[in-house]
Prior knowledge:
By secondary structure, the protein is mainly beta. The chain folds into 2 domains: 2-71, no CATH class; 81-288, Fumarylacetoacetate hydrolase, domain 2. Helices cover 13% and strands 34% of the residues. It is built from 5 helices and 19 strands. It has helices at 38-43, 45-58, 89-94, 168-171, 228-235, and strands spanning 2-7, 14-20, 23-26, 64-65, 70-71, 81-85, 104-107, 113-114, 118-123, 130-131, 134-140, 156-163, 166-167, 187-195, 206-211, 214-220, 246-248, 270-275, 279-288. The strands form 3 sheets. Strands 1, 2, 3, 4, 5, 6, 7, 8, 11, 12, 14 and 17 form a 12-stranded mixed β-sheet that branches. The protein has a 5-stranded mixed β-sheet with strand order 9-19-18-15-16, with no helix packed on it. Strand 18 (270-275) and strand 19 form a beta hairpin.
Amino acid sequence: MRFAHLRRADSPAAHLAVVEGADAILVSDLLPDPPATLQQLIEGGEPTLSALRSAVESGTAPRHPLGDWAFASAVIAPPAVLAVGLNYAAHSSELGLKTDAAPTVFTLWPNSLTGHEQTTSWPRALSEAVDYEAELGVLIGTPAKDVAESDALSHVWGYTVVNDITARNVQFSEAQWSRCKSFDGFTPTGPFAVTADEVADPQDLHIWAVVDGQTVQDASTDQMVRSVAKLIAHLSQSLTLLPGTLISTGSPGGAGYSRDPQIFLRDRSTVTVGIDGIGELTTHCRVLD
């Protein structure tokens, strides 16, 4: 199944919806006591998801044209957003950084979450070196603690698309990476969150990014240094991964910082990152003087 948080043009409230083709079905029209967010849906476990499937199959709920709605972040108020750096060898090399024996892990702050076709803005005084990073987002479905790699994918609820936007000048001036990637709106997600059964193999997905009409990243998730299963197993050794936790699994090569000439996001730039079978996520950029 495919889910989104949708907003009407005249309201900031987000509505959880099932998406089928060009139609949206509000979850509030499907169940008597519906989950209001994806987080609540994930916490409801398989019984809630099964009830939703049955309600959709009944065909009695009204359908709405998807084009009549705006998108909020695919994830809202997750218990944690964990990001993994240097998880593609080409990206590590182009940044001049070493892929260590253990993954580089940092957190992204909740103010950075935003949705498809939204505008992300930042002050020119803070950065003129803002970069894009296409990433596969993994959503945990059941608590994961000390899980084996062979069992790790059984804890995955689903997947989404993440653009891990980064202020490179801040990244290389500080010892940690949370702030440089957590400006307001620097973590677009979506448009959709898809359940795990929609993705046969998370290590066999085409992933790409297009900036102002130019393809700048074009890779496959099979190029990850550490697979989704390895990342979950590693992270679960030190903390319990709670339902709804979002793991952003790293970016392939082609970042703007390393290109010659460099490509950074400018005022009125448009960047689209996409993953086959999951979706294409577009962000509009404004640089504030």
